[in-house]
Design goal:
alpha+beta; 5-stranded mixed β-sheet; Outer membrane lipoprotein wza fold like; wza like fold; 6 helices; about 325 residues
Length: about 325
């Protein structure tokens, strides 16, 4: 009887163990005792290529500088560097090489590593090419990318003096003309002559320039300015008008001016002014002053003093 009970217990233990093993194979155990879905197969360990946008711009420091635009090339045409100009050099990928400086009287610019480089009388593009070649030939850089910018153009200047509103020195741009320079100087004053003097640098003869002819498009000759030119605007010959006019004063004589035009320049007649009774105090060549009865069509001469009388009624 005891042996039988022992055999029954052994069979029960084996059955319980079989049931336990079967349960473990059907569903993996978890920490919290709940069933969990089978884990999917692991993805490939080979790294994928990073996704890139077709519009992405690389930021490689060795990317070459963009080429200058046609507009920049046109703006620089005809402009050359000279003593006193301020330029800025930038080397792409080498910020420690960037510098700004003056061009010396001998046309040389002091640059890092190279020292003095002669860029006088070169256009900015040509100077940029020369600097790149110098860095290459000296063995400092294999393929330098240089950008040379003209900061202030002091060497290429003209002077505008005399009867202008803002006399001074002005920088030249490409094909600056006499009219351009006068506009920079604020224009000719009310007492300025309409014929100006163009003084070229060196031994070139002085040139008279008729401003009205230039404005009308009939001015003869090339009036494009060069560095060192001077424009002098003399004061025009004056006449004086007083009496029965709105604005008695001294005014510049215009070519072919008559007494009636002189009255119009003075603002016209007052309510009491006569349109036919005028006298002119005129200086003769010997310096004597005499009185001349004038008509509305009488030409006005330099230093004439016109007196407009009252009308009779």
């Amino acid at each position: 009887m005891g042996a039988l009970l022992t055999k029954i217990r052994i069979v029960g233990a084996v059955a319980a163990l079989a049931m336990l093993l079967g349960g473990c194979a059907s569903a993996p155990a978890t920490v919290d005792g709940t069933d969990r879905a089978p884990v999917p197969a692991a993805a490939s360990s080979t790294p994928s290529e990073p996704a890139t946008s077709p519009d992405a711009v690389p930021t490689n420091a060795n990317t070459p500088l963009p080429a200058a635009s046609d507009t920049d090339a046109e703006a620089a045409q005809g402009v050359v560097l000279g003593p006193g100009d301020i330029v800025e050099m930038r080397m792409f990928g080498q910020p420690d090489m960037n510098t700004q400086g003056f061009i010396a009287d001998n046309g040389e610019l002091s640059l890092p590593l190279l020292g003095a480089v002669d860029i006088g009388d070169l256009t900015p593009n040509a100077a940029q090419t020369r600097i790149e070649s110098a860095y290459r030939e000296q063995g400092y850089f294999r393929d330098p990318q240089i950008s040379l910018t003209l900061v202030e153009h002091r060497s290429q200047q003209v002077a505008v003096l005399g009867a202008v509103n803002q006399p001074g020195r002005f920088s030249l741009s490409s094909r600056t003309t006499v009219l351009d320079a006068l506009a920079e100087a604020g224009g000719i004053t009310a007492r300025g002559a309409r014929s100006v003097v163009l003084i070229h640098r060196g031994d070139a003869p002085r040139q008279r320039v008729d401003i009205d002819a230039l404005v009308a498009g009939s001015g003869a000759g090339d009036n494009v300015l060069k560095a060192g030119d001077t424009i002098y605007v003399p004061e025009a010959p004056l006449f004086y008008i007083y009496g029965q006019v709105q604005r008695p004063d001294a005014y510049a004589i215009q070519p072919g001016m008559t007494v009636m035009q002189a009255i119009s320049t003075g603002g016209g007649l007052t309510d009491r002014g006569s349109n036919s009774r005028f006298t002119i105090h005129r200086k003769s060549p010997d310096g004597a002053v005499h009185e001349v009865d004038a008509l509305p069509t009488t030409p006005v001469q330099p230093d004439d003093v016109i007196f407009v009388k009252e009308r009779f009624f």
